[in-house]
Amino acid sequence: MISEKSVVIFSKNSCCMSHTIKTLFLDFGVNPTIYELDEITRGKEIEQALAQLGCSPTVPVVFIGGQLVGGANQVMSLHLNRSLIPMLKRAGALWL
What we know:
The chain is an alpha+beta fold. Helices cover 41% and strands 18% of the residues. It has one domain (7-91): Glutaredoxin, CATH 3.40.30. A 4-stranded mixed β-sheet has the order 2-1-3-4, with helices on both faces. The termini are far apart.
């Protein structure tokens, strides 16, 4: 689910922070693969696996270039310190 895509977001439609992170990537022009855990068949299993990886809360969770970035706090920190765009470029998700 993760290794074949440049950006993967695990999300829930009911989560406002998930909406914020998805909007951030879409505003950059990134086309992330988004898995809505409250809509897919194995959503609960995936959420448990994310928790085992240390993701708390379990949504949103972002992977870039197959690597776990983390949740909303980690993504926003990368954005504020100007590291997110270069990371997206290296993963082939952005061509600015």
